[in-house]
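Summary: Need help interpreting a holo structure output

Steps to reproduce:
1. Submit the protein chain below together with the SMILES for adenosine-5'-triphosphate.
2. Request a joint structure prediction with the ligand placed.
3. Inspect the structure token block that comes back.

Expected: a single structure record containing both the chain and the bound molecule.
Actual: see attached output.

Input attached:
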Amino acid sequence: MTQAEEQKRQPHLAKAPILAASGLVKNFGGLTAVDNAAIEVGQGSITGLIGPNGAGKTTLFNLLSNFIRPDRGRVIFDGEPIQQLQPHQIAQMGMVRTFQVARVLSRLSVMENMLLGAQKQTGENFWNVWLQPKQVIEEEKQLRERAMRILESVGLVHMAGAYAGALSGGQRKLLEMGRALMTDPKLILLDEPAAGVNPTLIGQICDRILAWNREGMSFLIIEHNMDVIMSLCDRIWVLAEGRNLADGTPVEIQKNAQVLEAYLGQ
Ligand SMILES: Nc1ncnc2c1ncn2[C@@H]1O[C@H](COP(=O)(O)OP(=O)(O)OP(=O)(O)O)[C@@H](O)[C@H]1O
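--- attached output ---
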């Protein structure tokens, strides 16, 4: 297939990537968890990041979102270098993430968890509550409406008033994704969205990812469930022992002898 035909089939390949990282290195004492790794996420794509256990996938996620600082390397998000930014500043730019074990606040309600995902509210400033009460009330109303729409889309609207601690593991993942959406992000990094989730809910999570993707959101997904990765992703990056092993379409990756060996050799 020519480059022009490939771009027609996958239009996001024609645009600059929403996220591009290169030369990333992270050492933990004597262990090099990420070793000169690179990755790209195309605008509007669903990109997969796979590799055997301990390959460095979560560490790479932590480096991309600056939850930990790289020893070396650079990350460009939406055309800007982001190494000097804090995770919350990166979230404000439009890149948010979820965690392998969903981080929800169990003693708050599902709705309260959603509202915590919203950023830069007028009411966050103590004085604004007194100086601009109408604006604070109106914003809160709009945020609640937005939260309800998102909860409806992830099938949790009936749980809005329940403690988040009452949700199943799969529902917590949906809540974490919903909360990430409160910021109206351009890119979501999902760390193992299907792990520990029952098959029905996995199907629901995949449907939501595809629907949000059709609305223009890009995704980078770490996942061990190969059915999920192969059906969702248009491009897949493979990491092994902290290094890039391969990248390509799902069909290319499934046929790649080095990738098969890395998995079988586990
Ligand atoms: N904070 C840390 N301190 C020391 N070693 C760490 C730390 N975080 C990760 N590691 C090590 O770095 C390596 C890569 O770990 P990482 O969790 O990034 O891999 P992974 O590909 O996400 O694995 P899995 O698929 O099992 O979740 C592993 O050997 C791990 O033990």
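--- end attachment ---

Reviewer comment: The two ends are 34 Å apart (CA to CA). The chain is about 40% helix and 20% strand.
Status: needs-info
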